[in-house]
From TrEMBL:
Keyword ATP-binding: no
SUPFAM superfamilies per UniProt: NAD(P)-linked oxidoreductase
Protein name as catalogued: Aldo/keto reductase
Domain of life: Bacteria
NADP-dependent oxidoreductase domain: residues covered: 17-316
């Protein structure tokens, strides 16, 4: 497996990275089996393992910690913090306790210490803020991450699902205040979710940031298990994601199946080869739940798409566009909070 630079960090990573979201109660509760999956990925040449404190309430980090005993020095280990641990985002009635999420100094310091204990290590290579936190001043976030880096607890730090404007602002604040710069970003990217091609990926390339893209299978739609007019009783379908039944996305999948068939490539391998073909992408996260899924994805590791195939994909989903919406995608408060886009009633009446 060939390795690529993780932006300008000086770190080399494999084009496929092992995402550990499916390890633990959320996916595969068998710790021994999950450890074997990690070892199989490492033996195949994958050297980047990405997890988060929120995955199965920290259980994923515990499993990764077990798996890396004796192999830690060979692995680029990444984790994330910021989302409320133990909080189900699909439950509208659930509310996280105060100060148990976000990107404040108080929270990130505690979250990293807890992650290090679960991971059985004294440092992580990449520590990422899991989602933007509009409630915390960006300078405070960069300051605590810089301090953690200087203490040797993290080698580099980054973000996840940051809008392009915030990526640029973070670089400006870091330079202005003499703070460490975010070196990585983890955005969603797939054939069906190409919006980051418009501004995010160019910004990352401009500032020498590595892109660790997630959901290259478009939340499962590009595995080939979800087809128009067919019910799919898969593990992912039990979570009730809306994008799995989105008519526009399913229609695009049907067209992509035709492209894959004519090229003699499995749809899931076409999907992975597409995202790693972008020069701004450092690695694509794959998140197998079983050994069989990992082996199947690794079988397509050497797949390379011709310009003709890429042109046909562009004709189905034009560059820089999204087909429908990925449920897990971040939406800014400017879109989700009505109070930020509606003047108070009294002001509207006065106008």
């Amino acid at each position: 497996m060939e390795y690529r630079p993780l932006g300008r960090t000086g770190i080399q990573v494999s084009p496929f990275a092992l995402g550990a979201m499916m390890f633990g109660a959320l996916g595969n509760p068998d710790h021994e089996d999950s450890v074997k999956i990690v070892h199989r990925a490492l033996d195949a040449g994958i050297n980047l393992v990405d997890t988060a404190d929120v995955y199965s309430g920290g259980e994923s980090e515990e499993i990764v910690g077990k798996a890396l005993q004796g192999r830690r020095d060979d692995v680029v280990l990444a984790t994330k913090a910021g989302l409320p641990v133990g909080h189900d985002p699909r439950d509208p009635q659930a509310r996280p306790r105060p100060n148990t999420s976000g990107a404040s100094r108080r929270y990130l310091t505690r979250a990293l210490e807890a992650s290090l204990r679960r991971l059985r290590t004294d440092y992580v290579d990449v520590f990422q803020v899991h989602r933007p936190d509009p409630g915390t001043d960006l300078e405070e976030t960069l300051a605590v991450l810089t301090d953690l880096q200087r203490e040797g607890k993290i080698r580099a730090f980054g973000t996840s699902s940051m809008p392009a404007s915030d990526i640029v602002r973070a670089q400006w604040v870091a330079e202005r205040r003499g703070l460490g710069r975010p070196r990585t970003e983890q955005p969603p990217y797939s054939i069906l979710d190409r919006g980051i091609e418009r501004e995010v990926l160019p910004a990352l390339q401009e500032y020498g940031m590595g892109a660790l893209v997630w959901s290259p299978m478009a939340g499962g739609l590009l595995t080939g298990r979800y087809r128009k007019g067919q019910a799919a009783g898969t593990h992912r379908s039990r979570f009730g994601f809306r994008h799995l039944s989105d008519e526009a996305r399913l229609a695009a999948v049907e067209s992509l199946v035709g492209v894959a068939d004519e090229a003699g490539i499995a749809l899931r391998h076409l999907a992975l080869a597409f995202v790693v073909a972008h020069p701004g992408v450092s690695a694509a996260l794959i998140g197998p739940r079983t050994m069989e899924q990992l082996d199947d994805l690794l079988a397509g590791a050497e797949t390379a798409l011709s310009d003709d195939v890429l042109d046909r994909i562009d004709a189905i989903v034009p560059p820089g566009t999204d087909v429908g919406t990925l449920d897990q995608a971040y939406r800014t408060p400017a879109l989700t909070a009505p109070a930020l886009r509606r003047r108070p009633v009294a002001e509207r009446r006065a106008a």
